[in-house]
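It is worth pausing here to work through a concrete case rather than discussing structure prediction in the abstract. The textbook approach is simple: state the sequence, then state the predicted structure, then interpret. We follow exactly that order.
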Amino acid sequence: MNVLEVFVENLCGNFNNDEQIRNQEENGNITHPKAKHINGVCNSKIKNLPKDFNGYFVIEESYYNQGGRQNILPHLFLFTLNEDNKVVLESYELPNNVSKEDFRNDNENLIMDYNELVKSEKFNPMIYNEDNGVFTGESTSMFSPVTKFILKEKIENNTLYVSEIFYKNNKKTFGFEDPIIYKKVN
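Step two, the predicted structure:
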């Protein structure tokens, strides 16, 4: 198995942060939303992929519950290897004709056309460093002249550590420096 296949195997599946929330409840200080990720390779949902395509498109379904409200944030990511044999994450825009509620791994009717996929111009690709099966990456993106997004991830042993922070005019508007800790549940 090459490094990309190992990475994708670790990344994909159903994850939640129930253990992290239980620990925070026991300490009386809940700082993170109750969250789950459902990550799945979706190359089979993409028509017109080039014959020699060497990457994995992944649908990441993110669900956050906080203060009695649920927020759904689906993403389409492409994972490839660069010339240094490091995993690269690139973000793609969701197809215009699909609602975020329908952009799910289990949606059998979801079909995308490779020729119509649009790479996100705002997201700065993230490169993961691998050390003994542990993958770490960090990306800083400017979503607007005043909006900065910092993503930090660590993936190891069926656990995802994800820190996402938005800044507007250098003031934090959303996110957590301490990562949400997702454990694989399947």
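Step three, interpretation. The chain has a mean pLDDT of 95. DSSP finds two helices and 13 strands in the chain.
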